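*** Protein under study ***
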Amino acid sequence: MTSDVHPVNGKDAAPVGFQEHDHQSCVATALTSAEVRCKAEGLRLTPVRRKVLEMLLQEHRALGAYAILDRLRDEGFGSQPPVAYRALEFLVQNGFVHKIERLNAFVACSHPGAAHSPAFMICRKCDAVAEAQSAPSKGVLGAAARAAGFEIERTVVEAEGLCPDCTEKA
């Protein structure tokens, strides 16, 4: 994994999700950044899309579409699955959210708007998810792809284990 500069604060990007941080500021900054980017690019950040992004930012863990749908219903946004799936599709397509394949769930992107290859560390006990940067084209996978004449366009790296909190409790 490599260290990148965080597009929001300009600092080295540590994995987000496990370390202590000002969570309220984290959520507020990410929502403001999403609103600014959507306005600049002519994207529609509808109230339901914004609410889904906010929910995922609040958690720093993966949520499934039906958990999101339950929360949307509780917030008065409707209870039909397409409501959640359309919002998630928009958020994933525009890089605000990632799908965690192993969990069939979603997590807010720690580096929205930046071209990157995320690597996810997933706690098997509490489902906390930390996003870090990976460089698959420069490692063993990249070498194998080059040797085969293959051009990597997208990778999903997911590692399962225990987060610091769950390791301490064990």
Summary: The chain has one domain: 23-169. DSSP finds six helices and five strands in the chain. Confidence is low (pLDDT under 50) at residues 1-15.
